[in-house]
Amino acid sequence: MKKISRILTITFLSLVGILVALAMTIYVLSSIRMNKTYAVNSIPIPKFSKTADILEGKRLYQSRGCSDCHDVDGSGKTFIEDPAIGTLSGSNLTAGKGGILSERTDEELAIAIRHGVGKNGRALIFMPSTDFQGMTNEDVGKLISYLRSTPAVDKPQGEVKPGPLGRFLFLIGEIPVFVSAEIINHNSVHLTNITPSISIEYGKYVASTCTGCHGFDLKGGPIQGAPPEWPPAQNISKTGLNHYTEANFIQTIRTGKRPDGSEMKFPMPWKSLGQLTDTELKALWRYLQTID
Known about the structure:
Elements: H1 2-34, H2 51-63, H3 67-70, E1 78-82, E2 86-89, H4 106-115, H5 137-149, E3 161-162, H6 164-171, H7 200-207, H8 211-214, H9 246-255, H10 270-273, H11 278-288
């Protein structure tokens, strides 16, 4: 009996040791990648002061989902709080205490938005820059000019702490957005501007906002880093939207109600996307119809 007990104890302790070693390995390997620094060349970002341009920057902030992580007033908020995935919070983008705006140049902010890289060259954690890497200099400039026009909000930085499961899923490639800087081409040349039009090209430009949840192929599935209770993102390719017309697709985005009368539920940010213009939505529809 004592021999069996001894064997069980040794087996248990061995399993605990293996699990501890595995956890430490996951932590170390993920930390190395999360703490990596990147060199990104700075390019001049246009500044805007006209009311129409500031309002366009505000619309971009709202329609591109910035408030989902940085709150409606830009002060930041905790958007995921899960012991397994981690605690993730958006930065305070105002000039108030705890905010970063007064400490960043427009060019540094543009690098953070489009490259997922902070002032010190370190990768930003869970910054979905893959959604914004193609944003034009003009649109980035209007977005930043809007941020600089907003009131200062005193609010400390929320916690950013990847959890054990989040780190593991990141290591095996299931949550690349944890360090989007890893998969972005930092030598790409950004467009100065793009003319809004009901075209496939412009629709592709708008659709980049959707990739964070719907995937790079826009065919849906589990959302990166989302808690298990979140529903999977819908397939928004031509096949996934085969029961939609252009008209009711746009109506669904505007109202949050599908053609069958059911309501779109969180985390689908239909209120934010409802800020897209008719031209943007029609171009988006046209582009999505090319994905089969």
